[in-house]
Write a structure and sequence with these properties.
Layout lengths: L1 H29 L14 H39 L2 H21 L1
Helix pairs in contact: 1-2, 2-3
């Protein structure tokens, strides 16, 4: 249970970081800073900063997805393991992950 609570706290911290990054990106977009494709060699410093922030945001989102997968494992994985074989449980967990990711993407 302590492990679960620690994961939830970690998730809350990551979500706060994501909110801060999102606010910073919105401020940059409001200032009409253009995003350039990565193959251009002459970056403005603002675009470089935005790219670094986007990379950090992507990493945080991967961490959030990983944590959510762990939560899904805790909630659904163990229940399905009790009711079905390991192979069927794996398929069920993967379906849960896909549904979770679809809901995250749609938001």
């Amino acid at each position: 249970m302590e492990d679960f609570e620690r994961r939830i706290e970690n998730l809350k911290k990551r979500l706060e970081e994501i909110k801060k990054l999102k606010e910073e990106i919105e401020k940059i977009r409001k200032n009409n800073i253009a995003f350039q494709p990565p193959d251009f060699k002459s970056y403005s410093s603002e675009v470089f900063i935005v790219e670094k922030r986007v990379e950090k945001l992507e990493k945080l989102l991967r961490d959030v997805v990983s944590i959510l997968e762990s939560i899904v494992d805790l909630i659904y994985g163990k229940q399905t393991l009790l009711q079905t074989s390991k192979e069927e449980a794996k398929v069920e967990r993967e379906k849960s992950y896909v549904e979770l990711l679809k809901s995250l993407i749609s938001k």
